[in-house]
TrEMBL record:
InterPro entries: UPF0194_transport (IPR050465). It is found in: Cell envelope. One of its GO terms (cellular component) is cell envelope. Keywords: Coiled coil, Membrane, Transmembrane, Transmembrane helix. The chain crosses the membrane at residues 12-32. The keyword Hydrolase does not apply. The keyword Transmembrane applies. This is HlyD family efflux transporter periplasmic adaptor subunit. It comes from Litorilituus lipolyticus.
Length: 418
C-alpha cells in the first residue's frame, strides 16, 4: 500500500538568505563612500612629494656639465727624425719658451752635417783661389795700362820736339821721320786706350765672377746651414711657456718628421666647454651670464660661442671666463655651468614636477586644504628652469601640488591620501 509523505516547509532564512548580504554590501558601500568620497585610488602620504605654488621673479637657468680648456694651446712637433735619447719633462711640468723637452739622436744626420761643413769650407777656399787669380790678372792689366801710358807720353814728347824742329825748316828733322813720329804717337795712344778697355772688361768680369761664385757658395752654405739647423732640432724645444699637458713619445721611440712630441697649454687663460641638451640650447644666446661651479669655488663668465652642430643630442657652448681663476682651475677639470637664460618678473612658478615638459598642458594633482584628497587639475606650463617651472594658468598662489611620479594613478581624477 502507498505511504503518504509529509512535505516540510522551507525556513525563511533559507529562502531570503541574500537579503542580509545585500544589506551588508550596501552598508559597506555607504561607509566606503563616506570615507573615500569621489576618490578612486589610494596613495600613501609618505611616498608623495609636494610643492607650493609661489609668485615672484622667476629666473630661467640651463644647467650643463663640461670641462675647462686652455685658450692658448700648442703642439710641439719634431722637425727631424730621430730616436728619443733623453726626455727632460713629464706631464704637469712648468716650462718656459726655449726649454729643452726632449733630446733625439740621429748619427746619419750628424755625418751629413760634417760632410756639408767640409763642402762649405772647400767651396770657400776655391772661391778665394779664383778671386786671387782674377785679381792677379787685373793687376797685370793695370800695369800694362801704366806701361802703355808711359810709352804714349814718351812718343808724345819726341813728337813735340820734332814738331818744333820741323817747323824751323832747317833740315834737322826729315818729313819722313816726322811722319813716323806722328804715327807712333797715334799707335801708342790707341794701345793705351785698348789696355784701359781691357782693364774695365776685366773688372766687369771679376765682378760677375765674384757674384756667380758667391751664389754657388751661398747654395752650399744654405745646405750646410739647413743640416746644421736639423742637427740643432734634435733638441726639441718648448715653443711657448705653460704647463705640459701630454708627452707623446717615450725613451727609445722613433720620432718622424712632424710627429707630435708634447702638448703645452697656458694654465692662466682658460675657458669652459659646456655640453647642453639640444632641446634647451634654443634659449641660449651669446653674451648671457654663466656661473661655473668647480666643486670648490664659483667663477663667472659669459657665453662666447654656440656650436652650430649637434653631437649625440648635445650642443657645445663655449664660456669666456671673466672672473679670476681659482687655484684648482686647470685644463680638463670637470665643471658644472648654470646659464641664466632670462628673468621673468612677477610670475607663478613651482618646483618642477616629474614628466612636466615646458610649454605644455599637464594634469597635476592639487592637494586639498585638509590634505586628505588630491584632484587632477589641468595646468598650462610655461618656461622651465633647472628645478622650477612657470605656471601660466590652472593654479594660484599657495596651491599645493604633487610633484612626484603620478604615473600609477594618472588615469584617475581624484585620489585619497592615506
Amino acid at each position: 500500500m502507498d505511504i503518504q509523505r509529509e512535505i516540510a516547509a522551507t525556513p525563511l532564512w533559507r529562502k531570503y538568505w541574500y537579503v542580509p548580504v545585500v544589506a551588508l554590501m550596501v552598508l559597506a558601500t555607504y561607509q566606503f563612500k563616506s570615507v573615500m568620497g569621489n576618490a578612486s585610488f589610494i596613495v600613501e602620504e609618505n611616498k608623495l612629494v609636494t610643492a607650493t605654488v609661489q609668485k615672484g621673479n622667476f629666473r630661467v637657468n640651463v644647467r650643463a656639465t663640461g670641462v675647462l680648456k686652455p685658450l692658448n694651446i700648442r703642439w710641439v712637433s719634431s722637425q727631424v727624425s730621430g730616436r728619443v735619447e733623453q726626455a727632460f719633462v713629464k706631464a704637469g711640468a712648468l716650462v718656459e719658451a726655449g726649454d729643452i723637452l726632449m733630446q733625439l739622436s740621429n748619427p746619419e744626420l750628424r755625418r751629413e752635417l760634417e760632410k756639408a761643413r767640409w763642402e762649405f769650407e772647400a767651396k770657400k777656399a776655391e772661391n778665394h783661389a779664383a778671386f786671387v787669380a782674377l785679381e792677379s790678372q787685373l793687376v797685370d792689366l793695370e800695369n800694362s795700362v801704366v806701361e802703355a801710358e808711359y810709352s804714349y807720353q814718351s812718343s808724345k814728347l819726341k813728337l813735340d820736339a820734332e814738331t818744333q824742329l820741323f817747323e824751323q825748316k832747317n833740315g834737322a828733322v826729315s818729313a819722313l821721320d816726322y811722319q813716323r813720329s806722328q804715327l807712333a804717337v797715334k799707335q801708342q795712344m790707341q794701345y793705351w786706350l785698348s789696355q784701359q778697355q781691357k782693364v774695365e772688361k776685366m773688372k766687369a768680369n771679376l765682378a760677375a765672377t765674384k757674384k756667380a761664385q758667391q751664389a754657388r757658395l751661398g747654395l752650399v752654405e744654405n745646405n750646410y746651414q739647413r743640416v746644421k739647423d736639423q742637427v740643432a732640432a734634435l733638441s726639441v724645444l718648448a715653443t711657448t711657456s705653460g704647463v705640459v699637458q701630454q708627452v707623446s713619445l717615450e725613451l727609445g721611440e722613433q720620432a718622424q718628421v712632424g710627429a707630435s712630441v708634447a702638448l703645452i697649454a697656458d694654465q692662466h687663460s682658460l675657458y669652459a666647454e659646456l655640453q647642453v641638451q639640444e632641446m634647451k640650447v634654443s634659449d641660449i644666446q651669446i653674451g648671457q651670464s654663466v656661473v661655473i661651479d668647480t666643486r670648490s669655488n664659483e667663477i663667472f663668465g659669459t657665453v662666447s660661442r654656440i656650436d652650430p652642430a649637434v653631437n649625440a643630442g648635445m650642443v657645445q657652448v663655449d664660456i669666456n671666463i671673466t672672473s679670476e681663476l681659482p687655484n684648482e682651475a686647470r685644463p680638463d677639470l670637470t665643471v658644472d655651468g648654470l646659464i641664466e637664460v632670462s628673468n621673468i618678473k612677477e610670475t607663478l612658478y613651482v618646483k618642477r614636477p616629474v614628466f612636466a615638459p615646458r610649454y605644455s598642458k599637464a594634469g597635476l594633482f592639487k592637494v586639498d586644504s585638509d590634505k586628505q584628497f588630491a584632484r587632477k587639475q589641468q595646468v598650462k606650463l610655461g618656461q622651465s628652469s633647472v628645478n622650477q617651472i612657470q605656471i601660466l594658468s590652472g593654479l594660484s598662489v599657495g596651491d599645493t601640488v604633487i610633484i612626484s611620479d603620478t604615473s600609477n594613478y594618472q588615469e584617475h581624477q581624484e585620489v585619497m591620501i592615506n
